[in-house]
Amino acid sequence: MGKTRAIVITGNGTNCEMEAAHACRLSGFDDTVIAHISDILSGDTTLDDFHFLNLTGGFLDGDDLGSAKAQANRLKNADVSETGEKLVEQFLRFIKGGKLIMGVCNGFQLMVKMGMLPAFEGNYLQQRVTLTHNDCGRFQDRWVYLMIDPDSPCIYTKGSGKGIYLPVRHGEGKFICDTSETLLGIESEHLSVFKYTDGEYSSPATDFPENPNGSENSIAGLCDPTGRVLGLMPHPEAFVHYTQHPRWTRERLPAEGDGLILYRNAAIYARENLV
Amino acid sequence: MLERVETALKNDIRDARGERLRREIEHFLHLPVSRVRTIDVYTVDADISHDELEKGASGPFSDPVIQRWSIGEPAALICAGSDCSCPDFDFAVEVGFRPGVTDNVGRTAREALEYLTGRRFCGGEGVYYSVQYLIKGDIAFADVERIATGLLCNTLIQRYSILTSSAFAERRGFPPFAPKVVSGAHHAAKVREIDLDVPDDELLRISREGVLALSLEEMKIIQAYFRDPGVISERGRYGLGPKPTDVELECLAQTWSEHCKHKIFSATVQYEDENGKREEIRSLFRSFIQRATRDVREKLGERDFCLSVFKDNAGVIKFNDRYSLVFKVETHNSPSALDPYGGALTGIVGVNRDPFGTGQGAKLIFNTDVFCFADPFYSGSLPSRLLHPRRIYEGVVEGVEHGGNKSGIPTINGSIVFDERFCGKPLVFCGTAGIMPAELNGRPGHEKSIMPGDLIVMTGGRIGKDGIHGATFSSEELNENSPVTAVQIGDPITQKRMFDFLIRARDRGLYRFITDNGAGGLSSSIGEMAGECGGCRIDISKAPLKYPGLDPWEILISEAQERMSLAVPPENIDEFLSMAERFGVEATVLGHFTDSGMFHVMYGERTVALLPISFMHEGLPPMRIPAKWEITRHDEPVIESLEDYTKELAALLGSLNICSKESVVRRYDHEVQGGSVVKPFTGAANDGPSDAAVVRPLLDSFEGVVTAHGISPRYSDIDTWHMTTNAVDEAMRNYVAVGGSLDLVAGLDNFCWCDPVVSAKTPDGAFKMAQLVRSNKALYEICLAYNLPLISGKDSMKNDFYDGETKISIPPTLLFSVIGKIDDARKAVTMDVKLPGDIVYILGETADELGGSEYLALHGYVGNSVPKVDAESAYRRYRAYGRCVSAALVASCHDLSDGGFAVAAAESAFAGGYGMKLDISALPWKGDYDGRSDAALLFSESASRHLVTIHPENRSEFEAAMKGSAFAVAGVVTEETELVITGLSGRVIVRSSLTELKRAWQRTLGDL
Which residues of chain B fall short of a pLDDT of 50? Predict the structure, then answer.
């Protein structure tokens, strides 16, 4: 049987490549590669050789034109050396090949601004939603409770119970749709995988700090209709071991952190479907 | 063409940036503004078609979900919906950068257009960013001026224009304007010769007017050098006259600046103590700091863990057999006083380059920051040129936020200290630690070398006029004429790209030596590198410039940010340069290293500077500085004893120095890189203040790095000796509290002083110098007692403000930082109480030491009975406590510092969500029983104490382990969420719900 292979793209201001790669390794991918964007643009590394693509947190180009805007432009317009192909074509081929993409924080911002989510009717290049400045007007590093839609097609959340607890670390995480139809479409197709909630995971949270940014419908994460392309603002790679939990010295916690299940499901999916 | 592209939020989208400004205008300027909307403006000055510009506007420049865009038409005048009745504002203000100031958004916008068009912009083309504010409110034009200069922009680096709405409509908005540097492409690079054969007062004028910050004695040394016939004839051979060039004079001024040379710390000091006993101290640095490290290392013997101290950009210690730790803490006070945002941002990204440029290079693992400010709520008047403390606070906090977060380095530890004198100069300490392989390319990772023939390569950002005279200007007091070029904006993304590239170049062994371009620019970095191998020949006409028109001296000393200098062996240069290009990083060969003994600078074919390395680095004899110590007596405070201290406790919890800093800390990413173990905030609601930070830099290992700090400038008003020992002890007790190991811990000293050299401006210099001497003596003593080697440090000696009338000197301040290890991070201890029924212990003795305390400050006193550290007994107790942590006996531990026992107890209780019943008569007391009062027991800040809770089943084991140390049971953790403290009389003297205590603690800075 072939090897399951994960890739983490870095460069131009991504920050979380190390811990994202660590999460991939812990969760059972046979190979995990951190590739600088220049390795991909030069053609030395191609996405075709991988099954799970990680777009991680960071400040792509300083978020200078709005979060991840400049990188979205780069990915759409940059050519891969010597192949004559646009990088975006590699992305689309990756998705059409039934493979997995997870974007976290800045990676999620990049995905929505490229138009990869929510990807109604298989259109992965049409922007319908955005992530913008938190209502509080400030960057926030704090932990949030997330309820999970059990009816979502998302392949990453299988068996994750009623919810998970993860940190958010962003200044632009407020989720907004272009129209109410888009929001309706997202909800009716169960694409809003994660919603900010309270400590009991009882109902979506509307107010700060439970909903840290004022997102519409408390949406913290979104998948495409296939369930294989996922983006979320909170950081699953930041909670893979109990010592990362803010209260680990006072609560009895399992050894594994809540975030790891997303990577485990990806690894299982890749093993069962992609190699 | 020159064209404006504007993007505005759609009308139904909340403008968080505008709302925040509206609140600030109301809060600070008390002006009735009902709405502020913001528009982003990109002024494109390039040969680009309208079609391409439209693609840019609709693509990277705007977000179609929330924004609309326009080209050449003011967005403010375009109706977005039928319900819109624009222009719905009274004034428009537009703020952009002045020419030459780093414009990060403009740069990213330019790159975006380059990707879009597939064409690189050529010289002179660019994109310039500005922000337009549409203000609605019943205010006058003059009010808008106040808003513009008081909140929206810093006129040192930014420009603004104001239009009323009618003028705006009439003129169709602001005209397009590109803030280019216009010194002209045809500017011929000038080299001036300076005649030093002049009288003394003329020498001084040359120094003063050139911002050289050289003293008469130093000018005369230079004068003498250039009179030497041997020197004159040698210069003749290179086409140089007998007079120094401006390049040479500037280069010496940088190299010999207080900032670079630490002249005060290397001076010969004539010290006289309070009894008239005299001694001569040859270099405080060698006598106390270096000697402390040497003596501690000798004591440690085979257990010595220091690898590289005081010689590189940062100190290096062992972490384990495979990795070494690197740590450096810097200050960026003077730039932060002028432009808080830019100053602090360059402070943090600047200190990043220190560990990165240490040894063969280190990966950065965390940042720390400590700020000293005046009261942000200050409402009195201020001397001109001084910014309001609130603006300093906002700007510095935001600068460090952007610098740290965007660099992907977690900010894990810090504090904010308040004292009114910091309005003269704020202190902005930024620290960065890194980790490097113990062995790299077949040699120790912390070692590097240069061979003659190696190429001089500069990487990263380009050189501009920004940051000229940073080193010399910070070697003077802040005054009316402080140069604006010393202010600059950092660019974390350019630096991050460079680091991504250089780490890979390091691992491939492509370079032999790396160092940072900081103060003094190339003159400093290449000057120091040339010292390694004995010379260099550099052609600065090859250096890439941000814009034309710089003279050679400016290129040499510019402190433009985000640059590293390297020595690359010729055989590796092709691979090095092609890899740089792939990573989008600029790298330029400027020359080569030699063994000629000369710092030889060319501009094209012409020699513009020729200085012996030995003269640059050793040509300066030590200064001679007098120091005379006198004991200061303050009024003995009259504090009446009270029946109940609950209100006093609440007031202390709400005081600026004690209150929660969570509103700042949450703006800093403290978890990126995934190794966070003890976070800045902890406890049942994630809001209790941690004593120290623990991170795991290697995610597949449980070995942790622990960092903490101590700082206590208030005690300097009584005696800098005790200011120093308390700062070191505070750092150590914080470090020990979370479980840091005493077998592997090192210190860093950052001295921030007011000018201690006697002069007309500083008549009390001898006393200030004596304060520095005592501080150094104390530092030596306590480091020996704590087996604490000093591995790196920095001093900033001119923290005064003087405008000819008002002089403000900061209190002498030592920030002491420690870095060390916890073998198993899973054993780390946090400060929140864990379970009802747990036993509360106090470790250490309390004394009548309210002098300099927050409690006395609350009552308007300083006092005299400053806390004194008994380091030997403290060290034994810390060891015993450490064994308890290793045996997993400790449920919680919190250090006692500002506010003493009562504050620590309140914090531990409300963090854990359980109450405490405590009896202060149980506290071990030191000294005369006359001074043993409720107030002293509650609020005295006696050093080396911890408040510890233990599960009852661990009681006997814990007590056995602590045997021989001063400790006692002080009470118990309770289910009732109330803090109850019984006084000496047996009556309850503090009773308060945790909710109220926490509210008092959180309220003060909660909204900032």
Answer: 82
